[in-house]
């Protein structure tokens, strides 16, 4: 197994500033990266607090960027986005702020588009199988079942 070279706190600080400047990061991502550099907990905590103080790290800003990006680019639903933000260790308030980036009309439009595209790919003749596959796909992408099923039933009448 390859042993990594331990960085000095000053070198790690320089590297982590570039890492944070490149794109929004969660506190957990930065903490993990600093530990990968071989730093001790006291150094990690000190660098983290400096990053927060200087505005390089902001969890609410990260939540907004993450939620908006995953919705627009990956076409994820709110449920999946919330789970991922929770996995990053964000607070409920930050998650709520991130979800405000998703407009309700856009959300409905994306859900409809996701279902329409998936329907065009399916080649099943049984309407119940088609409904099931459509609903599973959209729910797996993070859309709420109570939004998915009415649209699926409209798209695939029995």
TrEMBL record:
Domain RecX second three-helical positions: 58-99
GO biological processes: regulation of DNA repair
InterPro entries noted in UniProt: RecX_HTH_1st, RecX_HTH_2nd, RecX_HTH_3rd, Regulatory_RecX, WH-like_DNA-bd_sf
Record keywords: Cytoplasm
Gene3D superfamilies (UniProt xref): Winged helix-like DNA-binding domain superfamily/Winged helix DNA-binding domain
Highest taxon of the lineage: Bacteria
Entry's localization field: Cytoplasm
Domain called RecX third three-helical: residue spans: 105-149
UniProt keyword annotation of Secreted present: no
Residue span, RecX first three-helical domain: 12-51
GO annotation, cellular component aspect: cytoplasm
Function according to Swiss-Prot or TrEMBL: Modulates RecA activity.
Matches recorded under PANTHER family: REGULATORY PROTEIN RECX FAMILY PROTEIN
HAMAP family: RecX
Protein family (similarity comment): Belongs to the RecX family.
Name of the protein: Regulatory protein RecX
Organism in which the protein naturally occurs: Dawidia cretensis
Gene that this polypeptide is encoded by: recX
């Amino acid at each position: 197994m390859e042993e990594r070279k331990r960085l000095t706190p000053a070198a790690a600080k320089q590297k982590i500033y570039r890492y944070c400047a490149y794109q929004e990061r969660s506190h957990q991502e930065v903490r993990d990266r600093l530990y990968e550099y071989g730093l001790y907990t006291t150094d990690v905590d000190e660098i983290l607090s400096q990053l927060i103080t200087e505005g390089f790290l902001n969890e609410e800003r990260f939540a907004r960027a993450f939620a908006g990006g995953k919705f627009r680019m990956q076409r994820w639903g709110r449920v999946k986005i919330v789970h991922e933000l929770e996995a990053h260790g964000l607070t409920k308030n930050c998650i709520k702020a991130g979800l405000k980036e998703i407009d309700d009309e856009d959300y409905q439009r994306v859900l409809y588009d996701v279902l329409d595209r998936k329907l065009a790919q399916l080649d099943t003749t049984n309407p119940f199988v088609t409904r099931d596959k459509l609903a599973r796909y959209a729910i797996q992408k993070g859309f709420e079942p109570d939004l998915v099923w009415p649209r699926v039933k409209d798209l695939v009448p029995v």
